[in-house]
């Protein structure tokens, strides 16, 4: 999975979570963090053909005493689940309240109670968890145990199918409990918890043993007796802090069953060419008229037809293909600029005459490429719109089901923060809209971040008339779609030379091919 992008991309690097494999193991050179994103085979569609969300993320609470093994249990669940969609482990420790100078003095003297429910910003915890459960992004706080303080930076999280919320107070607050689909309590011997706590605080948090013991007797043990242990009554299942293989297997079986119940055969619903915009009479028509699709199509000049002729020709050299692809993308982005807002502006010319013109009325403009074929439009985009951030979405088809899978999200700074995303205009770049499965997912991701539907401008080379475009337009009528041309149809076919599951001999894999089309645009541009 790509992890390097153009150095011109404007990202808030402190928000990027540590990268791990599906077993929860941190990749080399990265520092351990409790809040992690674990990716296996990507996130499948979480919406229906009308574009609306049909399933929330599955939220699991893992509560228990301090050093009882909550994080270990969370990671064991992830390991046992095996090949699963994206998982977020969200730690309650991030939500300690901000401390003033007086509280900081008490904290460094081990005289501040961090084990009371009042030490946790429960409303913020519930708000961030509710956003993630509703498939929205969240920017959660970062807390430094060494400084006993919440830092100014935040951590960006998005895209989970499963969320594991772990912390000693995870089951104490009613607002939090209302968000959970499964509640787990980790029960552990008190002596073992104390031994683990001493080892952890000395090694990871720079504390001395005397201070740890004093804090334990003064705050930790009373809190466990008064708040944490009683919260076990709210748990659906109680798991031992050690030797818990059977309990974890039961939990994983339950999770798999619930995820299976929420799965949706999305792509086959929109790829079949009988899903079209209803006619004015309300009945479905066998074919959607191009004018009903509300597309912005480039004027079909002789120049444009000549460019398409070169790009469609399979004998065109790679050098010429890249040159004319960049030229076509430049024309498309220039044409797409008409969908940005403008205001009148008067200027004085060099000869002293006042001229009436226009100026752009959009504070935040950025681009997002659906890689890898969408990257073929990036150079043209940068030629036309100078000095704006460009991010990417890695969306690929699952080898078995054919469903679109969201594998990686690298969005510009404007989109990561919701208060900025609400006013941002986003150019979504992809080579073509065939089944529209990738387009659906990309648009839904932007909407989840707070981007307004009428602020999304989808720029593409080709659209398949008899593909999923009609369903896409019905689901997102306010999205502006700018294309170079409209081809007649898509057809189920095979991508030659692909070796994978079900095709060990390299006979190909099942794909939808646009006719006449331009072939595999990403392969022709990059390979």
Automatic annotation (TrEMBL):
The keyword Coiled coil does not apply. It is an enzyme of class 2 (transferase). Residues 59-241 form the Phosphoribulokinase/uridine kinase domain. Residues 299-492 form the Phosphoribosyltransferase domain. Keywords: Kinase, Nucleotide-binding, Transferase. The keyword Nucleotide-binding applies. GO terms for biological process: UMP salvage. Pfam families: PRK (PF00485), UPRTase (PF14681). Pathway: Pyrimidine metabolism; UMP biosynthesis via salvage pathway; UMP from uridine: step 1/1. It comes from the Eukaryota. Its EC number is 2.7.1.48. One of its GO terms (molecular function) is ATP binding. InterPro entries: P-loop_NTPase (IPR027417), PRK/URK (IPR006083), PRTase-like (IPR029057), PRTase_dom (IPR000836), Uridine_kinase-like (IPR000764). CDD domains: UMPK. This is uridine/cytidine kinase. It comes from Hebeloma cylindrosporum.
């Amino acid at each position: 999975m790509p992890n390097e992008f153009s150095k011109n991309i404007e990202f808030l690097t402190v928000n990027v979570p540590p990268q791990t494999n599906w077993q929860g193991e941190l990749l080399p050179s990265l520092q351990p963090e409790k809040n992690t994103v674990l990716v296996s085979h990507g996130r499948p569609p979480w919406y229906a053909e009308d574009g609306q969300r049909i399933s929330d993320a599955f939220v699991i609470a893992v509560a228990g005493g301090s050093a009882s093994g909550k994080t270990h249990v969370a990671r064991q669940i992830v390991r046992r689940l095996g090949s699963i969609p994206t998982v977020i482990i969200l730690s309650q420790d991030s939500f300690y309240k901000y401390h003033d100078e007086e509280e900081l003095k008490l904290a460094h003297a081990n005289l501040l109670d961090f084990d009371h429910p009042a030490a946790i910003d429960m409303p913020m915890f519930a708000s961030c968890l509710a956003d993630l459960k509703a498939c929205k992004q969240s920017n959660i706080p970062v807390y430094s145990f060494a400084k006993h303080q919440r830092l100014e930076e935040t951590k960006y999280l998005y895209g989970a199918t499963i969320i594991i919320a772990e912390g000693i107070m995870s089951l104490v607050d009613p607002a939090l409990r209302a968000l959970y689909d499964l509640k787990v309590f980790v029960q552990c011997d008190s002596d073992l918890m104390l031994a683990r706590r001493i080892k952890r605080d000395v090694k990871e948090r720079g504390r001395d043993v005397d201070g740890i013991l004093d804090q334990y007797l003064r705050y930790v043990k009373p809190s466990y007796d008064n708040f944490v242990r009683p919260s076990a009554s709210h748990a659906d299942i109680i798991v031992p802090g050690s030797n818990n293989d059977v309990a974890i297997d039961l939990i994983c079986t339950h999770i798999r069953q619930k995820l299976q119940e929420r799965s949706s055969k999305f792509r086959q619903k929109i790829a079949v060419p009988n899903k079209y915009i209803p006619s004015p009479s309300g009945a479905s028509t066998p074919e959607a008229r191009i004018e009903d699709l509300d597309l912005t199509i480039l004027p079909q000049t002789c120049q444009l037809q000549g460019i398409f002729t070169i790009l469609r020709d399979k004998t065109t050299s790679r050098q010429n293909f890249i040159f004319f692809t960049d030229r076509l993308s430049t024309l498309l982005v220039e044409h797409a600029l008409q969908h940005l807002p403008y205001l009148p502006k008067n200027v004085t010319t060099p000869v002293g005459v006042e001229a009436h013109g226009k100026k752009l009325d959009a504070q935040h403009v950025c681009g997002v490429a659906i890689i890898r074929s969408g990257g073929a439009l990036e150079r043209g985009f940068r030629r036309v719109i100078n000095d704006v951030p460009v991010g990417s979405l890695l969306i690929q088809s699952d080898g078995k089901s054919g469903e679109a899978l969201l594998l990686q999200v690298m969005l510009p700074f404007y989109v990561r923060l919701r208060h900025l995303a609400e006013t941002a205009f986003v150019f979504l770049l992809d080579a073509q809209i065939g089944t529209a499965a990738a387009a659906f997912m990309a648009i839904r991701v932007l909407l989840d971040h707070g981007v307004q539907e009428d602020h999304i401008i989808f720029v593409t080379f080709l659209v398949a008339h008899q593909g999923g475009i009609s369903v896409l337009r019905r689901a997102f009528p306010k999205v502006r779609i700018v294309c170079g041309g409209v081809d007649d149809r898509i057809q189920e076919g095979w991508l030659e030379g692909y070796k994978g599951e079900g095709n060990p001999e390299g006979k190909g894999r099942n794909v939808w091919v646009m006719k006449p089309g331009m072939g595999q645009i990403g392969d022709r541009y990059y390979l």
